[in-house]
Write a structure and sequence with these properties.
The protein has about 450 residues and is mostly helical. It is built from 16 helices and no strands.
């Protein structure tokens, strides 16, 4: 493309029509759906094309270690940045968030490299598995770096740009990954291709787009990066612990069982990503309204928004759990058929585990509603306390249950840990609302 064509492309990308709120909702929903669908499609197709062991390696790299490294780059600042009124109100500029994200992304790269090297040195991973896990972690770290741009789009009231960037970047990288996998049936080649496509997508849909926006504050004040690190430190540790809790069953399977078991559990686990991302689609458009209600002391409106969002999540959870129980056996059998005759009977025997995982996903969505509410309230210490307690339980419960009960044990520990999070966050939110009555 020439520079003129690039400019034309970016102007088209920025177009939001005559109803911006509708565009925000549509593109946020589409971005969430594409991201969730991509994870599901990749998990299934890697097993179908490259086999159960390759699928297990992909699951560990993409959905477990890679996502854990994403949390390091991300630093838990998405809701914080999206609800930041800017440096004129005691907040931060985009330039400061960007400088901070460069540092956290570099730290995540070092951690990913160190983890892969350690797993080879300890004999837990072979060289090919360690390399694939590292490359998939790099893919996720780029996701985390792009998030600072997409959070800025949301902060500026242009959530539709966040949705567009997420949608097109995901489609590009997933398509390239699958084409490379189909071509050579080589997971490493596919991982390299996906990382290169992810870089291209970032430059097209995030970096290039923000350069076309007016009024972006690129300034960096002395000492503000350190202040941001300290202020968001508890959120980062909390989000890091949250993902460890969320993935503790997967870590336990990787250490206690085999690569094929990781692949099978990842397929059973897929609906939780859909529930979580759809819940975020419901929650995120209300974050700015919730922030305004809390800052103006309108606790009744704040509670009303929580009840409205909670009702939607409850409805989605009931539908998802009912569907998992009644049509789950058919879906699991259909997946086995699509995977091939070698996979017959590998998934359908886990009907109970599948339903339990879906229910746990619904509980996790409720817990995230309470989590976001506490972020709006700026109650980082309470968030940290709940995560620390739950992570301590996960550290001992997950390996023990998986070692004894295998995949059903992993499903049970996941649902139980999500319940602990919900009780903790829900109790904190209830306390804050009771402690500060309306307009105080």
């Amino acid at each position: 493309m020439t520079e003129k064509r690039f400019r034309r492309f970016f102007r088209l990308f920025l177009y939001k029509g005559e109803r911006p709120e509708r565009q925000n909702m549509i593109w946020n929903m589409l971005g969430s759906f594409v991201y969730a669908a991509a994870s599901m499609v990749l998990s299934f197709l890697v097993m179908r094309i490259a086999g159960a062991d390759a699928s297990g390696v992909f699951a560990v790299g993409f959905s477990t270690v890679g996502q854990q490294m994403f949390t390091v780059a991300y630093y838990g600042l998405r809701p914080f940045q999206a609800t930041d009124a800017g440096k004129e109100s005691g907040g931060y500029s985009f330039g400061e968030y960007l400088r901070h994200r460069k540092l956290t992304s570099a730290a995540a790269l070092l951690m990913a490299a160190g983890f892969s090297a350690w797993m080879v040195f300890s004999g837990a991973y072979g060289g090919a598995k360690a390399t694939a896990v590292f490359l998939l972690a790099v893919y996720k770290i780029i996701d985390g770096y792009a998030d600072v741009y997409e959070s800025e789009f949301q902060r500026r009231g242009s959530l539709y740009l966040t949705g567009k960037a997420n949608t097109f970047r995901t489609i590009l990288s997933v398509t390239v990954f699958l084409l490379a996998l189909l071509w050579k049936k080589d997971l490493l080649l596919a991982c390299v291709s996906a990382v290169l496509a992810q870089v291209l997508g970032f430059f097209l849909f995030d970096f290039g787009v923000i350069r076309e926006l007016y009024g972006v504050d690129w300034s960096v004040r002395r000492g503000e990066i350190r202040r941001l690190s300290v202020q968001g430190g508890l959120l980062f540790i909390s989000v890091f612990l949250d993902f460890y809790i969320f993935s503790s069953a997967k870590y336990a399977i990787d250490s206690q069982l085999n690569d094929a078991a990781s692949g099978y559990f990842n397929l059973l686990f897929m609906p939780t990503s859909v529930i979580y991302l759809v819940a975020n689609f419901v929650i995120r458009p209300f974050l700015t309204k919730m922030t305004a209600c809390w800052e103006t002391g309108d606790r009744r409106a704040f509670s009303g928004l929580m009840k409205k969002i909670g009702g939607i999540i409850a409805g989605l959870t009931v539908l998802a759990v009912g569907g998992a129980w009644f049509i789950g056996p058919f879906v699991l059998s259909l997946m086995e058929m699509l995977l091939g005759t070698a996979f017959r009977g590998t998934l359908s025997l886990y009907r109970g585990s599948f339903t339990g995982i879906v229910f746990g996903g619904g509980i996790y969505a409720f817990a995230n509603l309470c989590y976001y509410s506490l972020v709006v309230m700026r109650r980082q210490k309470r968030i940290f306390a709940v995560y620390l307690l739950t992570a301590g339980i996960a550290l001992f419960a997950a390996p023990a249950l998986v070692a004894r009960f295998a995949i059903p044990g992993a499903a049970a520990v996941y649902g139980g840990l999500m319940g602990v999070e919900l009780l903790g966050f829900g109790g904190c939110v209830a306390w804050e609302l009771w402690r500060k009555p309306d307009n105080e």
